[in-house]
Amino acid sequence: DIIPQPLLDQYLSMTDPARAQTVDTEIAKHCAYSLPGVALTLGRQNWHCLKDTYETLASDVQWKVRRTLAFSIHELAVILGDQLTAADLVPIFNGFLKDLDEVRIGVLKHLYDFLKLLHADKRREYLYQLQEFVVTDNSRNWRFRYELAEQLILILELYNPNDVYDYLRHIALTLCSDKVSEVRWISFKLVVAILQKFYANSANALGLNFINELVVRFRHCSKWVGRQAFAFICQVGMFSLCFCVYIKFG
């Protein structure tokens, strides 16, 4: 009653390999690009009509097809709701996390948008995997690490201070020592956001431990770039706090 059956059948047939040879070599990519719109039109109650097609596209040998889905999986999650997302999208999302960088960047750019739709217990499982984003197929792909830092600033609100300290803090410190200045600069903002997270949640002990680590790691660094990093962290927005710590610890 929503879409004429012949039209839907025509759309679903776009994943047929024979169509790529006879109609358009990028027909599967076009199918992937349109899928969120088709899903929205059909509604979540008719997701079963698209589920097999989506899984077929998610395992397509062409990385451009998988990349297209990776960039829109957060939009599909909104359409389907939390239960269908957990059952049908999370496994595909996990596969994209281990894919080529060209595909991983799709989920990374909307990592916060996807994680916020998951239940807290399921969301917490990804704390162990966020570290993997620091490693890329091409180490010169610094924009990947820049995007990671930007997403982590948003993601902080999804986790409690202890989780931030145990998992996200390590990533932030690693990014602060990146070889590319643009990555370091956005990472300084991430460090400040982490400190603000601690003190906003009255986790003062965690905040002091983290500041002490920053002082030891950067203020007393034997290389000038490390000492410069400490100055930039202060500049980003924590002048008074970092200055007091500097006076206290020397």
Q: What can be said about this structure in brief?
A:
The protein is mainly alpha-helical and 250 residues long. The protein contains 14 helices and no strands.
Task: Please give a handful of descriptors for the protein shown.
250 residues; Leucine-rich Repeat Variant; 14 helices; 0% strand; repeat; transmembrane; PP4R1 phosphatase; membrane; protein phosphatase regulator activity
Mind explaining what this structure looks like?
Keywords: Membrane, Repeat, Transmembrane, Transmembrane helix. One of its GO terms (molecular function) is protein phosphatase regulator activity. InterPro entries: ARM-like, ARM-type_fold, PP2A_Regulatory_Subunit_A. This is PP4R1 phosphatase. It comes from Mystacornis crossleyi. By secondary structure, the protein is mainly alpha-helical. The chain has 2 domains: about 1-120, Leucine-rich Repeat Variant (Alpha Horseshoe), CATH 1.25.10; about 130-250. Helix content is about 75%, strand content about 0%. Helix 4 packs across helix 5 and helix 5 (about 65-95) crosses helix 6. The longest helix has about 35 residues, at about 65-95. It is elongated, with a radius of gyration of 22 Å. The N and C termini lie far apart (about 75 Å).
